[in-house]
C-alpha cells in the first residue's frame, strides 16, 4: 500500500534550496542510489532516518547502508507516559534514551496510551527502538472500532519478516493473526481468534516466537501455533518463516481509506466514516494500549542472541544465519548520516562548505499500519514496481489525505513555515512538525552545504 508521496510539506532551508520531488523508490530489483542509499520501510530512498528503523538492507545501495539495529532488551513499557517517545524526526538511534519512535498523534488518557486517528488522517504508528530476535511480547490492548478502522500490534523486521495481531473495526469479536516471510504475500497465512468485545474490554495479546514456532495467545491461552516445519518452500529452498530481528509496532490506520485498493477496503470492513458517532464524540478514532512487555529470547548462540550492541546483516538473503549480533554503534551524528558515514554532519568534524545537495532524511507519507495488508494484490517484498500506488510491498503507508488534492487541508503547508528558526542547524533538518500530527507528512531535507557554515 505504499503510495506515492505528494510534493508537499516542502521544507525550506535557508531559502537556498527546495526539495519538492518524491524520494526515489526502491525494491529488490531497484536498489537505492548512492546519494540516497537507504531504503526505508516505505520503500523510498534517503539518508538519516531512512537508515534507521525499517531500513531494508536488501533494497539499499549496499548491505551496510542501513545503520545497525539496537539489540533486544528485556523491558516492560508501562505506556503511561510519552516521555520516552520521540517523533522520527527527533531520533538519531540512541535506544538508551528513547523507547518508541513514531508518527501521528499518540495521547495519554487515564494512564494509558491512545493511538489516535483524527478525521482524514492516516492514523498513528509507534515502533520500539530496540529489536527482538525471537522472544515474547505481550500487550494489553483495547482495539479501535468502526468500518475501515484497523488496529495493529505486530513484530516487523527490516527485511519485512512480520508477525501480526490485527483488529478490523467492524468485528469486535475477532482478532486476526498473520505472518509473513520477507514480505511475501501468502493469503493462506492468516488465522482468526475469538475475543470478547475487543473495543470495550482490555485483553492481553501475546506473541511467543522461537526459531521453531510462533504462538499467538489471548489472555494467556494459546489460540494459534505455526511451526517452522510447516513452512518449507521447495522452490526457494527456504523456510518461509519470520526469522530476523524485528521491532514491535503498534498502530491505528485507515484500511478503509477511499484511495486504498478495493481489496484493502473490503478487508477493513468498508470505507471509513469520518462523521461517525465515534468521531463526533471523541474527535478521533483510537486504540488503547496498556502495559507492553518484551522478553528477549534466551540463548547463548545464534540465532536469537542479544549479547552485543546491534544487529546487522552480512548477506542479502537475510535469513537467520546472516544476522550478526555485533558491537557496532547505532547512533548517527545528524540526519545526513548513513550506515557507511555515521558521523556525517558532525559539527566537531568541521569541513568546508562544498556541496549543497538535498536529500530526504525523514521517511514521510503518513503512517504505517501493519507491514503487509491482506487483500492487496501485488503486495509483497518483491515489489517489482515500487512506484506510486502500486501497493508494492509493506508499510501500509497511505498518502496523507489531509494534504492531497481532495481539498481537505490539515496544515499541509506548515512544514514550509516551520523551517526558519535556526535552531536545529547543526543537523540541518527541517520538516513537518509533530503538530502536523497524523498528517505527519514529514518530508525533511538535509542540505549538506549548510552544515559547515
Ligand atoms: C476472519 O474473520 C473475518 C471477519 O472478521 C473474515 O472476513 C475472514 O474471512 C476470516 N478469516 C479466516 C481465515 O477465517
Ligand atoms: C516460494 O519461493 C518462491 C521463490 O522465492 C516464491 O516466488 C513463492 O512465492 C514462494 N511460495 C510461497 C508459497 O511463499
Ligand atoms: C534458523 O536457525 C535455526 C538454528 O540454527 C535453524 O535450525 C533454522 O533452520 C534456521 N532457519 C529458520 C527459518 O529459522
Ligand atoms: C533550540 O531549542 C531548544 C529547545 O527548544 C532551546 O533550549 C535552545 O535554546 C534553542 N537553541 C537555539 C540556538 O535557539
Automatic annotation (TrEMBL):
Keywords linked to the UniProt accession: Glycosidase, Hydrolase, Signal
Bias (Gly residues) ranges: 377-394
One example of a Gene Ontology biological process annotation: carbohydrate metabolic process
Residue span, GH16 domain: 62-276
Stretch list, region Disordered: 343-401
Signal peptide limits: 1-20
Family designation: Belongs to the glycosyl hydrolase 16 family. CRH1 subfamily.
Full protein name: Concanavalin A-like lectin/glucanase domain-containing protein
Record organism: Cercophora samala
Lineage: Eukaryota, Fungi, Dikarya, Ascomycota, Pezizomycotina
